[in-house]
Design goal:
single chain, alpha/beta, Rossmann fold, 8-stranded mixed β-sheet
C-alpha cells in the first residue's frame, strides 16, 4: 500500500498521529471513518497522486496507529473540534497553508468541523456518506434507531468496551480481506484488537451525541455555513438516502456552494469504488 508515500508520526500536541503523504501538487487530506484507518484510502490516494495532487492520509486521533489523550467526563478529547485541530496542525507541519479535505463516515464530521472552524485553510470540502450529526439526530425515528442503533449503544459507559473486546474480530465480522485488500485488512484487524483503540473509537461516538451535537447546533443558531465549495456524495447501496430522503436539501443550509452525487458502491466507497470516487473528487477539486 501507498507505494512512494512517506509514512511518519506527527506530534500535534495532545496526540501523535500516523500520517501517510505523497505526491506533488495541490494538497488534499483524506479522513477515514469507523473502524477504519488511513489505509482505507490505499486505492484512492495513488489515483489522486497520479492526477497531480499531494495526498495526506492520517489516522484520526485514537484510531489505527495514532494516539489519543485519556477520556474526559465530557468526552471533549474525542470531539470533532479536537480532531479537526489535529488535522490542521498536521497540514501546517507538512507546509500546506490551504487544502481540500474529504471525510467519510466519522471522518466527514471532522472534515465539516475543520471547514467551519478554519475557513481560511479549507478551500474545498467533500462529505461522503453523511449528513451532520445534529441533522441525523433531529430525524431520529424508529427506522433510524434500527439502522443506527450502534450510535446509542456506543454512548453507554463500559458495556460497549466489554462487548467488543470479548471478541473484536467477531464484532467487526464485516472486515473482509477480499474487499479491503490484504494489507488494509491486516492493519484494521490489528487496530480493533487493541483496547486503547476500541476505547478511543467509542469516545468518538460519545462525543458525537454530546459536545459535537452542541457545537453543530451553535453553528446553526449563529448562521454559520461552510464558506468553500462542498461536494456531498453518498453510496447507492447504503441507507442514507432511504433514511433521510433528499440529502442535498439537508446540506444546503450548511453550505454556500453545493454539488452532489451518488457513488455506485456499498458504504465503504473508497474500497468498493475507488476509481469512481477518485474521479469525482478530482473533477470537483481540479478548479479549486
Amino acid at each position: 500500500m501507498f507505494d512512494g508515500f512517506t509514512d511518519e508520526r506527527v506530534d500535534v500536541g495532545e496526540a501523535v498521529l500516523r500520517v501517510r503523504h505523497g505526491g506533488d501538487g495541490p494538497p488534499v487530506v483524506l479522513l477515514h471513518g469507523h473502524p477504519r484507518t488511513g489505509a482505507t484510502w490505499h486505492r484512492v490516494a495513488p489515483l489522486l497522486v497520479a492526477a497531480g495532487f499531494t495526498v495526506v492520509c492520517p489516522d484520526l486521533r485514537g484510531y489505527g496507529a495514532s494516539t489519543a489523550p485519556p477520556p474526559r467526563p465530557d468526552h471533549g478529547q474525542a470531539s470533532k473540534r479536537a480532531m479537526a485541530g489535529d488535522v490542521a496542525r498536521v497540514m501546517e507541519h507538512l507546509g500546506h497553508d490551504t487544502y481540500a479535505v474529504a471525510g467519510h463516515d466519522r471522518g466527514s464530521y471532522v472534515a465539516l468541523r475543520l471547514a467551519l472552524d478554519r475557513p481560511d485553510r479549507v478551500r474545498a470540502l467533500a462529505v461522503l456518506d453523511s449528513v451532520p450529526i445534529s441533522e441525523h439526530l433531529a430525524r431520529a425515528d424508529a427506522r433510524f434507531a434500527r439502522a443506527y442503533w450502534h450510535w446509542f449503544f456506543f454512548a453507554q459507559p463500559d458495556r460497549p468496551e466489554r462487548a467488543i473486546l470479548a471478541d473484536p474480530l467477531a464484532w467487526y465480522s464485516g472486515l473482509d480481506p477480499a474487499r479491503l485488500g490484504a494489507e488494509n485488512h491486516a492493519e484494521v484487524a490489528a487496530a480493533v484488537q487493541r483496547p486503547s483503540v476500541v476505547r478511543a473509537m467509542l469516545e468518538d461516538y460519545r462525543a458525537g451525541l454530546e459536545v459535537d451535537r452542541a457545537d453543530e447546533e451553535a453553528d446553526r443558531a449563529a448562521g454559520r455555513r461552510v464558506a468553500c465549495p462542498t461536494l456531498a456524495l453518498w453510496s447507492v447501496h447504503d441507507d442514507l438516502e432511504e433514511l433521510h430522503g433528499d440529502i442535498p436539501a439537508i446540506w444546503r443550509p450548511w453550505t454556500t456552494v453545493l454539488e452532489w452525487g451518488r457513488i455506485d458502491s456499498g458504504h465503504h466507497m473508497a474500497e468498493d469504488a475507488p476509481e469512481q470516487l477518485a474521479a469525482r473528487l478530482e473533477d470537483s477539486w481540479r478548479s479549486r
